[in-house]
Amino acid sequence: MDSDESLVRAYRKGDQTALEALVYKYTRHLYNFVRQYARAGQDAEDIVQETFIKAWKHFGKFDATKSFKTWLFTIARNTLIDSMRKRRETPFSDRENEDGDLLDIPDDRAELPEEAFAALEEKESVRRALLALPPRAREVLLLYYQNDLNFREIAEVTREPIDTVKSRHRRALQALKKVFADRAPKEG
Amino acid sequence: MEHFEDIVGKAIAGAAEEPPEGLSRRVFSAVVRRRRRAAAWKGLAFLGASACAAFAFAYAWRAAGAEFSSSGTFQIASLLFSDFHAVIANWYDFTFSVLESLPIVPVVGVLASVLSFILLAYAAAVNFTTVRRTGRYRTYHYV
User: Fold this and answer.
1) Across the interface, do A146 and B137 touch by the CB < 8 Å criterion?
2) What domain range includes position A127?
3) Among A21, A30, A96, A146, which residue's beta carbon has the most beta carbons within 10 A?
4) Nearest CA to CA, how far is A74 from chain B (Å)?
């Protein structure tokens, strides 16, 4: 598959198939990211669609020296936040402070039971565990592990300092560990 | 032993949900539809503006014609046919006389309206071409 740079260049030269290639390349990534926040699949589809329409509208403003993927995820995130605000949902929960940091930081040293490791192999339990996390903590994990963005790119998407992103990633992992530990059946 | 972060990373990556079938095609079709609609509106706007420019040209042309007939430019220019040798001998003075007698404002009006008409009609044509092309456009499949 062609690189983003060559597809962006081709689209700017008038090649319509390049835009289609970009849509096909990133729909799955964006859907996965958005789906974790949208109430229903249809909402996620609408947000993905709106993201690409906004990207097409503002293609002229895109700086080709930067990452297209990061730019696209930034648009998706803003579209998602707008959509949540319209639905009067808060982009962060009561388990986060205003900077998006977790208020209840679990103990990283806690041992994880074997059952919790088994749960990690079930897609549905992983999805449920992710949903149990505060939105911003979930966001970092999704962008990092599902969409292969590095910390610098996540910092660009979320417009936060890279150290904040790194620290949020660490705390999110700790929180996820606690979610799994809490859900594992207690041994008698 | 594998680190917790690696295990969790793989688990999160593996938990990615498959999007509904045909989502990419639907999304791309929506982008094309939006693009087509925007191009149609822009095309109509440019077409309207070019029609205005055409009316402006007609008005400026008539005004320029009236100004020309009273400016004496034609009389001076007619020396080219009646006394060509004198014009050549005094070409410098002749050129200045012609330029001085030109009704500048109507001439600028005519040129500006012609230029506007050409540019606006071109922009309308570009947008209508986009409408026609996107109407025929069939999606390719990259998945």
Assistant:
1) no
2) 114-183
3) A30
4) 18
CA–CA distance, B86 with B81 (Å, rounded to integer): 10
Q: For residues B89 and B132, is the Cβ–Cβ distance under 8 A? A: no
Instruction: Out of A86, A106, A139, pick the residue that ends a domain.
Output: A86
Tokens standing for residue A130: 């992710």
Distance CA B23, CA B44 (A): 32
Chain B residues within 8 A of A32 when measuring between CB atoms: 16-17, 19
What the block records as the tokens of B3 is 């680190």
**Burial of A38: CB neighbours in 10 Å, binned 0-12, 13-18, 19+:** buried
Task: Kindly report, residue by residue over A52-84, the tens digit of the pLDDT.
Answer: 999 999 988 888 888 999 999 999 999 988 888
* Residue A98 within a domain: no
A66 and A122 both lie in a single domain = no
B16/A1 touch (CB, cutoff 8 Å), yes or no = no
How far is it, in rounded angstroms, from Cα A153 to Cα A131?
A: 23
Q: Where are the domains of chain B?
A: 21-136
Q: What angle do CA B17, B18, B24 make, to 5 degrees?
A: 130
Q: Which residues of A touch B13 (CB under 8 A)?
A: 145-146
Confirm if A110 and A173 have CB atoms less than 8 A apart: no
3-class secondary-structure state, position A96:
strand
Cα(A77)–Cα(A51) distance, integer angstroms = 9
Model confidence, pTM: 0.71
ipTM over 0.85: no
Find out whether A162 and A152 touch, Cβ atoms under 8 Å: yes
| Chain A residue nearest residue B31, CA to CA | A53
Quote the DSSP letter at residue A39: S
